[in-house]
Design goal:
The complex is a heterodimer of chains A (268) and B (180). Chain A has 268 residues and is of the alpha+beta class. Chain A is 36% helix and 10% strand. Chain A is globular. Chain A has helices at 15-28, 37-44, 67-84, 104-107, 111-114, 156-163, 168-187, 208-227, and strands at 5-6, 55-57, 63-65, 117-118, 121-122, 129-132, 139-142, 240-241, 246-247, 259-260. Chain A contains eight helices and ten strands. Chain B is mainly beta. Chain B has one domain. Chain B contains one helix and ten strands. Chain B has one helix at 134-143; strands at residues 28-29, 33-34, 39-40, 50-58, 64-71, 88-94, 127-132, 146-147, 149-157, 173-179. In chain B, strands 1, 2, 5, 6 and 9 form a five-stranded antiparallel β-sheet that branches. In chain B, strands 7-4-10 form a three-stranded antiparallel β-sheet, with helices on one face. Chain B is globular and about 55 Å long. Residues 1-25 of chain B have low confidence and may be disordered. Classes of the chains: A alpha+beta (268), B mainly beta (180). At the A-B interface, strand 2 and helix 7 of A face strand 5, strand 6, strand 7 and strand 9 of B.
Chain lengths: 268, 180
């Protein structure tokens, strides 16, 4: 238990934890090979398009919605990549953005992500550079974000209604629907063009993408606590989560993946 | 030059009303869907515990938007308050791909080839969306003899590659499904 990574609410991170997280993002954003931020962001939409949303048929006639397992594997790999570039102590875990909280209904995007500079330096959680030379047209620019009104964010009651759904298929469809809305809300627009979170093609470059999905992953974790870890369509368990080398059955338990979403954790 | 994604087909059975207003700087209103066919209340079971309004074959290649679903309120628009008294049944959200960023043919949907093809289906295959609308459907069934659906798309985000924001709402048909 002691070696588990505890993923925390971004609003509850200590100063040293936030500093370490920013250091990891900043370093990763300077690396253009397969250790870097640009590589991982490019797995979701342009140019590689591995992301799994909705239902797809793969290799058989089974229609599979692997939205939750695929993004769990994606976050895990990204978290490891960020930690590789972060200080060893404190141990960095991806923080989650609770867009349903009363705080978010006041501030919208958390200040950790909305502050343009920190100590005179660019905040690596505010934006990142998209480098996608193989896109048509090629893209090389900083991410954009035009979030909507905080009052439009989902409420805790809406989230609870989804957590109460007992069937996995129902749950994942309704949670993905909320997820879709958050993408559009966060990307938003300036009247002329939208922000990057609002497009599958570029969403993963916005640094808040990872904390949005961390919240989605946490809600799956909470649902699993209530309805069972293995409560998923059996026919999906052997399906492979490309390109992460994991099967669906490998990502059902967060503790087996080395992390948890405990609100508090004390080692005695 | 990339092939831009065109709407696969016009939505069946619709009367579309074009809105060009921008309600505020935060979103745009696109063409509203109004069903021309109605569901007869007599054809529905007398008892059910859940009613879903399903949207089959939803396109998601372009902009991201909220689709506000209203029952028996053909005059609903982006200014309509989202309360049950106005027939508001819920919203579904589309996380759009943002247009085509590939080479020619990249966004053309090919049918799944055969059972030996290990690749998954094309990312732009149309999807199903639904809202759980039990209370609104029951209220409509109690108060009238038929049910019609209006969908108000409110566009939140798009890219330079999205050609047609006004026609973002595209789907094949609607199912009204009840469960015991």
């Amino acid at each position: 238990m002691a070696s588990l990574t505890v993923r925390k609410n971004v609003d509850h991170l200590g100063a040293s934890e936030l500093k370490a997280l920013r250091a990891g993002y900043a370093k990763a954003q300077t690396i253009m090979d397969n250790r870097g931020y640009n590589y991982y962001a490019g797995l979701h939409g342009i140019p590689n398009w591995f992301c799994w949303h909705h239902s797809h048929v793969q290799g058989s006639n089974i229609s599979a919605n692997l939205f939750l397992p695929w993004h769990r594997a994606y976050l895990l790999h990204f978290e490891k990549a960020i930690r590789d570039q972060s200080p060893a102590i404190p141990k960095v875990g991806l923080p989650w953005w609770d867009w349903s909280s009363s705080q978010s209904h006041i501030t919208g995007v958390p200040t950790a992500f909305s502050t343009a500079t920190v100590s005179g330096q660019p905040n690596p959680l505010f934006r990142a550079r998209i480098v996608a030379p193989s896109a048509n047209p090629p893209i090389n620019r900083m991410t954009r974000r035009f979030p909507g009104s905080p009052a439009q964010l989902p409420t805790a009651a809406q989230v609870q209604n989804v957590l109460n759904l007992s069937q996995f298929t129902d749950f994942t469809n309704q949670l993905e629907n909320i997820h879709d809305g958050i993408h559009g809300w966060t990307g938003g627009n300036n009247g002329t063009v939208g922000g990057d979170m609002g497009s599958v093609a570029t969403a993963a470059w916005d640094p808040i993408f990872w904390s949005h999905h961390c919240m989605i992953d946490r809600l799956w974790y909470l649902w699993q606590l209530k309805h069972g870890v293995a409560t998923i369509t059996p026919g999906l368990l052997q399906m492979v989560l490309t390109p992460f080398g994991l099967k669906v059955q490998d990502v059902l338990s967060t503790t087996q993946l080395g992390y948890t979403y405990a609100v508090s954790f004390v080692q005695l | 030059m990339a092939t831009k994604k065109k709407p696969a087909k016009s939505t069946k059975g619709t009367t579309k009303t074009a809105y060009t207003l921008t309600a505020d700087k935060a979103y745009r209103v696109a063409k509203i869907y109004k069903s021309t066919k109605t569901a007869s209340v007599d054809a529905m079971p007398s008892e059910y515990v859940r009613a879903d309004i399903e949207f089959i074959g939803v396109q998601h290649a372009g902009a991201s938007y909220e689709a506000r679903v209203f029952v028996n309120n053909p005059n609903a628009n982006a200014e309509t308050q989202l309360i049950q008294g106005n027939g508001y049944a819920g919203s579904f959200y589309v996380f759009g791909h943002g247009g085509c960023f590939g080479d020619a043919g990249h966004c053309d949907i090919h049918p799944h080839r055969d059972e030996f093809d290990p690749r998954r289906s094309h990312p732009l295959e149309p999807i199903k969306k639904f809202v759980i609308a039990t209370d609104v459907i029951k209220a409509a069934a109690t108060g009238g003899s038929s049910i019609n659906i209006t969908v108000v798309p409110v566009v939140t985000s798009w890219t330079e590659q999205v050609e047609d924001i006004q026609d973002c709402l595209q789907f094949d048909h609607i199912n009204l499904v009840t469960y015991y």
